[in-house]
Design goal:
This protein has about 100 residues and is of the alpha+beta class. The strands form 3 sheets. Strands 1-2-3-4 form a 4-stranded antiparallel β-sheet, with helices on both faces. It has a two-stranded antiparallel sheet with strand order 5-6. A two-stranded antiparallel ribbon has the order 7-8. Strand 7 and strand 8 form a beta hairpin.
């Protein structure tokens, strides 16, 4: 399914998970969350709510999982940018290629 969607839509697919609906898969992609059948013949973009669990937003849950997986792949410690009168802190995470250039 990853290869099919990448070839047809030109987007990278990082995550494929079965949804509560049989035959429907949630895809974490470089362009956000999509839903597809097992063959990749039908793709839907939108929000999926679980009405049996107080309208739990399954799309947001999938996005959180995609972010978690992405951060787990960061092998290097973040660069923390500080200011003299610090009110906020920014952490910069670099991919392996960017970290090698540092």
């Amino acid at each position: 399914l990853k290869q099919t969607i990448t070839a047809r839509l030109g987007v990278s697919v990082y995550l494929v998970e079965q949804t509560p609906i049989p035959g429907l898969y949630m895809l974490g992609t470089s362009q956000g969350v999509l839903y597809s059948d097992a063959k990749g013949d039908y793709v839907v973009q939108g929000v999926m709510l679980d009405m049996t669990r107080d309208m739990k937003n399954l799309t947001i849950s999938g996005m959180r999982e995609q972010r978690r997986l992405g951060l787990a792949q960061v092998a290097h410690a973040p660069i923390v940018l500080k200011a003299r009168d610090e009110r906020h802190r920014v952490a910069l995470f670099l991919g392996e290629q960017d970290a090698a250039r540092r």
